[in-house]
Amino acid sequence: MKFLISIFLLSCAFTLTAQNQKLSNGLAFDGEPYLVVNPANPDHIVVAWMGFVSFAEKFQIKTRASFDGGLTWSSTAALPHAVTGYTSADPSLDFDAAGNVVACYIDFTGTTPPISGAVFIRKSTDGGLTWGNAQEVINANFDGTKWPIDRPWMKIDKGSSTTQGNIYVTTFNGNRTNAPYNPYLSVSTDGGNSFTSRFLDTTGYLAGSLNALPVCSPTISSTGVFYGVYPSYVPTQNVFAQAFLASSSNGGVSISHKVARTDNPPSQIGNYPDAKKASLLLSNPQNANHLALIFLSAKTGDIDVYLTESLNQGTSWTSPERINDDPLTSGAMQDMIWGDFDYDGDLVISWRDRRNGASTGYDSDSEIWAAVRSADSSQFEPNFQITNQLVAYDTILKSSGNDFMCISLEHDTIYAVWGDVRSGKIEIWFQKTDLNGNRLSIQQLTESLQFDVYPNPTTSMLTVSSLEWKKINVYDANSRLVTSFENKTQADHYQLDLSRLKSGAYFIEVTSKQGVGVRKVIKQ
């Protein structure tokens, strides 16, 4: 479906109602949501995610916008593919200095070589309701067969310096078998009409050949300096894994490097292969010298959330501070971190938390938790729960496409989006919370055709129930069409005989006047 972003970084950690509001009702899967709040109008919110549309359209980037602080949302818009047959993944969003919304994402042939496609951006001039033409950022063939288009993160300079309006996109290689591995930086100085791309690492600060996932987290200071942190493990550079800070004050023309972290003693997160381990770099809008790096470490016995900060543009960093306040060595794994600075310097950090789960490790029930530190304090307030219920673990969480949540802090209000499996599939939820953890509103954002299949699992007969259905397609686990049925009698139910099929997983795709929906069924 997409490049694997389950970040295994060796031993390195560098990378109105009281119920949640569901934003997606995706067909079979919705994942990797990204949220952005208009800094000039916090009631204006845009969310993007990768959603399965149909077996023909595969994954597309879907978006919804709210103009009343998340109380109501626009209908879902799907960004069209650049080429018929492509599939999309990994969205990020930002506002530009003029108030337009920009979406960045991968659109490509998929993970089976040879790979074609690129990272693209599209701009919306009406607040995220409709989107303009796709503009290529970096092509899959930019660096031979390394396919440098994985996990694009985008930031736009909205400051008042000479770099105002610059669009920065960081990516890394999708080919996990073609070392050495590199982070890449693409920059537009003309509002996204064209981009130039280059390597972000360099001699002495190489990402190396041992870590195949050098994902870079970018940020831009209030004075227009670009910063990005990426992981490295090159024994000739240092016997320990490291995180390097790349920076540029001239729009990426020249880049300087510093050491942000040395993983000594080793963080041990390589012992937890399923955890979502990407780190996050933030810049304080009230202090251009202040950087914050959020990362994971298991040095105390299980994975915890840590923060290290620099007050001198990355020259030196504070000792790491543990953010989650559950008991040490409890076995509760924390992962999938995010965070944001408010305009006045308040800081929120969030993560997927398992302290209330019935078991230890990754395969445990989870919630989304957060911690806040006000700008005039040196300490975080006690942790609080963002989500409104404990969600049972589902095996789908070990697959790609559920590696990130997103959170924004604007005018003392926390806006969060994440995917969870409370309905039996990954769907996207939105919540607005105050700094004390009080829930202000919550919505489910995903939406799609709903229908029933039963019994599931089945040994032979399967009933499909859907009003005004037109067509039923049955696909196997490899997305190959097995059989197809058309509704010639206008019946609301249809019985499928699966007795001749081999045991295993199948997908039932139903098309009706209301749209398309997909359900997974098990043939015993």
How would you briefly describe this protein structure?
The protein has 524 residues and is mainly beta.
List the helices and strands and how they pair.
Elements: E1 21-22, E2 30-37, E3 45-54, E4 58-66, E5 77-79, E6 87-95, E7 101-108, E8 117-124, E9 135-139, E10 150-156, E11 167-172, E12 183-188, E13 196-199, E14 217-220, E15 226-232, E16 242-248, E17 256-262, E18 280-283, E19 291-297, E20 304-310, E21 321-322, E22 335-341, E23 347-353, E24 367-373, E25 384-385, E26 406-410, E27 413-420, E28 427-434, E29 439-444, E30 452-454, E31 461-465, E32 469-476, E33 481-486, E34 493-497, E35 504-512, E36 515-523
Antiparallel strand pairs: 1-28, 2-3, 3-4, 4-5, 6-7, 7-8, 8-9, 10-11, 11-12, 12-13, 14-15, 15-16, 16-17, 18-19, 19-20, 20-21, 22-23, 23-24, 24-25, 26-27, 27-28, 28-29, 30-31, 31-34, 32-33, 32-35, 35-36
Over all CA atoms, what is the radius of gyration? 23 Å
Largest pleated sheet: 5 strands, antiparallel
The coarse overall form would be globular
Q: Tally the helices: what do you get?
A: 0
User: Could you report the average pLDDT, rounded to the nearest whole number?
Assistant: 88
Counting helices, strands and paired strands, the structural category is mainly beta
Strand content: 35-45%
Low-confidence residue ranges: 1-20
Specify the helix fraction band.
Answer: under 10%
Strand elements, count: 36
Query: End-to-end distance, in Å?
Result: 25 Å
